[in-house]
């Protein structure tokens, strides 16, 4: 039973929610142009009804419809699903670029700040791809308990790395731990994946190759064996977790694809052979082009020379290979590697423009950030598009994103999470 009482001309209900004038059970959004994340079209004069309790769409359509709830006129603007960023590092500060000797408190504080920036930019759901102290798992649990809301987190916890590899960063004020699990055998890998599962990881992040930000390796280094990768996939998939692989060098990409990972992250030197294999298997590719773009553009004199040298040496080839994969029809998922140097969480939408610069159409870029991302994360029954039965996560833009991909970069866009306006 809901207790209702009046105080000072306002109506209150038992959950302390204040509603001026009268009690509404639904919100009715009207007068907008809709890109629903499913079809590559804009539907004018659209409307959408949202259940306040569940935050889900109950009816959607266009043309005249009787309003049954609080009416919110969106004044002819453009509505699209909230963005899903499948590759973030909410623990990182992209300006200080401090990677080592972070305390858990620093990581949690930075993560909360970054989540707010993500939401303001229009990102309503993320997969975090590696977080010290498993802070992303802990924050996701607090979200599920209703302690705080906002951009939702699919956590990976600590990534899987070899000793000395991309992920072997020292953490804690006293250096008492490392960023990733150090897995140097199939048995190490099996135990680490099971430990991550035990504490609540929903994705397993594998460091299959070297990377730009690690001083001890090169991009084309193979850092986890094929057997270790296969064990990770076997264990994770048996427990309904997804698997993403940081993979930049050609041989490491090949091993990760053979192992059956759900997504290749970066894919800098993806070969034609692996493009065909990814197409056959349905493997996703998350390009994270912005992560390579920002280092040579903003890092001179601010970053270690090894980072600048690595990024500058491979960026042209990287962009060319991603373009080849897009042209071939590989399923593209949207991720930015946010948190890496000068790769701000507020800059998420620039990745859409970069995707179009290497050959993606506007609709391909938008689908990567909506329905494709949701499919990769296995959340497409409730997220990724604006349809009946799915959460009302959406952004409101002044211009048509199908016509101009830069429309999504609008800084003062309105952002709604489960039907509630957040910005």
Automatic annotation (TrEMBL):
<feature type="coiled-coil region">
    <location>
        <begin position="212"/>
        <end position="239"/>
    </location>
</feature>
<protein>
    <submittedName>
        <fullName>Amidohydrolase</fullName>
    </submittedName>
</protein>
<dbReference type="InterPro" id="IPR032466">
    <property type="entry name" value="Metal_Hydrolase"/>
</dbReference>
<keyword id="KW-0378">Hydrolase</keyword>
<dbReference type="InterPro" id="IPR051781">
    <property type="entry name" value="Metallo-dep_Hydrolase"/>
</dbReference>
<feature type="domain" description="Amidohydrolase-related">
    <location>
        <begin position="78"/>
        <end position="417"/>
    </location>
</feature>
<dbReference type="InterPro" id="IPR011059">
    <property type="entry name" value="Metal-dep_hydrolase_composite"/>
</dbReference>
<dbReference type="GO" id="GO:0016810">
    <property type="term" value="F:hydrolase activity, acting on carbon-nitrogen (but not peptide) bonds"/>
</dbReference>
<keyword id="KW-0175">Coiled coil</keyword>
<dbReference type="InterPro" id="IPR006680">
    <property type="entry name" value="Amidohydro-rel"/>
</dbReference>
<dbReference type="Pfam" id="PF01979">
    <property type="entry name" value="Amidohydro_1"/>
</dbReference>
<dbReference type="InterPro" id="IPR057744">
    <property type="entry name" value="OTAase-like"/>
</dbReference>
């Amino acid at each position: 039973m809901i207790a209702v009482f009046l105080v000072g001309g306002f109506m209150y209900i038992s959950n302390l929610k204040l509603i001026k004038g009268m009690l509404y059970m639904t919100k009715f959004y009207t007068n907008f142009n809709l890109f629903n994340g499913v079809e590559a079209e804009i539907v004018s004069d659209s409307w959408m009804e949202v259940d306040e309790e569940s935050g889900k769409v109950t009816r959607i359509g266009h043309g005249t419809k009787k309003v049954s709830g609080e009416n919110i006129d969106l004044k002819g603007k453009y509505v699209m699903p909230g963005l899903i960023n499948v590759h973030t590092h909410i623990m990182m500060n992209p300006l200080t670029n401090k990677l080592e000797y972070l305390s858990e408190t620093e990581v949690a504080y930075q993560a909360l700040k970054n989540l707010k920036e993500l939401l303001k930019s229009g990102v309503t759901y993320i997969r975090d791809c590696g977080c010290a102290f498993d802070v992303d798992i802990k924050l996701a649990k607090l979200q599920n308990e209703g302690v705080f809301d906002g951009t939702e987190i699919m956590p990976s916890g600590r990534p899987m790395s070899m000793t000395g590899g991309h992920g072997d960063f020292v953490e804690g004020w006293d250096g008492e731990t490392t960023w990733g699990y150090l897995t140097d055998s199939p048995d190490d890998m099996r135990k680490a994946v099971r430990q991550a599962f035990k504490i609540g990881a929903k994705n397993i992040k594998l460091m299959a190759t070297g990377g730009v930000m690690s001083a001890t390796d090169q991009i084309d280094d193979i850092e986890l064996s094929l057997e270790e990768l296969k064990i990770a996939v076997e264990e994770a998939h048996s427990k309904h977790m997804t698997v993403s692989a940081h993979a930049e060098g050609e041989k490491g990409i090949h091993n990760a694809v053979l192992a059956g990972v759900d997504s290749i992250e970066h894919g800098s030197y993806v070969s034609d052979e692996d493009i065909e294999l990814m197409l056959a298997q349905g493997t996703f590719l998350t390009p994270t082009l912005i992560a390579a773009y920002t280092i040579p553009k903003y890092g001179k004199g601010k970053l270690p020379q090894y980072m600048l040298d690595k990024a500058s040496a491979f960026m042209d080839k990287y962009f060319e290979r991603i373009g080849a994969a897009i042209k071939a029809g590989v399923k593209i998922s949207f991720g930015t590697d946010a948190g890496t140097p000068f790769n701000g969480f507020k800059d998420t939408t620039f990745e859409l423009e970069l995707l179009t610069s290497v050959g993606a159409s506007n609709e391909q870029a938008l689908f990567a950030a909506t329905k494709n991302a949701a499919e990769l994360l296995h959340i497409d029954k409730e997220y990724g598009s604006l349809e009946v039965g799915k959460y009302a996560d959406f952004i409101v833009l002044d211009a048509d994103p199908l016509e101009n991909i830069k429309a999504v970069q609008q800084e003062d866009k309105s952002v709604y999470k489960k039907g509630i306006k957040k910005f």
